[in-house]
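Quick review question:
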């Protein structure tokens, strides 16, 4: 049973919290119907993600057997038969689409798009340098768009811009961690790593880090939310963003955590920073009626 639970990778569902962001920043988190819709979309995306993880485990089983930790995955280790893993992926996919459709057809449409892009990524695009990380960033943007569809709001360009840039930064930092940990065997575990180098990834991460921070500052000063608040209070939350991205960069270079999920689950300072940023943003949005991000 443990192996089948691992196949679904519930520990990775934390990424789907992006689906809930539009609920918080739209100012509709006080409406019970919208909360239920957002939670339903979150559950649907968890099923969709599990379907993709199960399919990826089948597709990457041979490579995973050569990896120091991935060789323990259910399919690679032989604990779950390939046929059962594929059947599980199919059941999760159908469940995700059905649940999404019951909330809003647009939710099901974004989940279907997520499946389509993942198929392209799994069977080809993951081996194309740069495009592999851009796909990962688009997956996160799709989570935001799914959440916006669930609560019936227009996706804020600021939310999408900051979320997309942050996802790119985290994705390239993850590649940097993989190179450092796997060393000369990196390409045998993930073929696209043969096209990356530590200096290149450090330079890309530095550029993205700067652009992400500037984009967030622009949001806090020029967005609709900033105009409605009528002061610079939104920009004070930048301190949490700065500490968070710097803390993650530190963890990557310490080889402590290589994925955003691992970092948030295991690192207490980063957990506290994220919670403080959410609390501060929510306080600003909900204390003044009509403020949205």
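Suggested answer, residue by residue:
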């Amino acid at each position: 049973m443990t192996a089948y639970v691992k196949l679904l990778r519930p520990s990775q569902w934390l990424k789907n919290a992006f689906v809930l962001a539009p609920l918080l920043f739209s100012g509709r988190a006080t409406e019970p119907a919208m909360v239920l819709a957002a939670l339903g979309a979150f559950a649907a995306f968890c099923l969709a993600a599990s379907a993709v993880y199960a399919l990826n485990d089948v597709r990457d089983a041979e490579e995973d057997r050569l990896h120091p930790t991935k060789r323990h995955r259910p399919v690679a280790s032989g604990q779950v038969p390939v046929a059962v893993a594929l059947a599980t992926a199919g059941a999760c996919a159908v469940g995700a689409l059905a649940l999404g459709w019951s909330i809003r057809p647009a939710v099901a449409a974004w989940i279907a798009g997520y499946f389509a892009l993942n198929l392209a990524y799994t069977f080809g695009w993951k081996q194309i340098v740069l495009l592999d990380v851009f796909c990962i960033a688009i997956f996160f943007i799709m989570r935001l768009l799914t959440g916006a569809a669930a609560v019936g709001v227009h996706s804020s360009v600021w939310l999408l811009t900051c979320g997309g840039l942050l996802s790119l930064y985290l994705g390239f930092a993850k590649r940097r961690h993989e190179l450092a940990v796997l060393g000369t065997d990196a390409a045998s575990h993930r073929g696209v790593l043969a096209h990356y180098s530590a200096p290149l990834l450090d330079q890309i991460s530095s550029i993205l880090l700067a652009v992400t921070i500037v984009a967030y500052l622009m949001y806090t000063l020029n967005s609709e939310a900033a105009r409605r608040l009528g002061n610079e209070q939104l920009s004070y939350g930048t301190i949490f963003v700065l500490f968070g991205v710097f803390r993650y960069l530190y963890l990557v270079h310490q080889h402590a955590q290589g994925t955003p999920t691992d970092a948030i689950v295991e690192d207490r300072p980063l957990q506290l920073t994220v919670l403080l940023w959410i609390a501060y943003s929510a306080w600003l949005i909900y204390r003044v009626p009509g403020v949205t991000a």
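Why it works: The mean pLDDT is 87. DSSP finds 14 helices and no strands in the chain.
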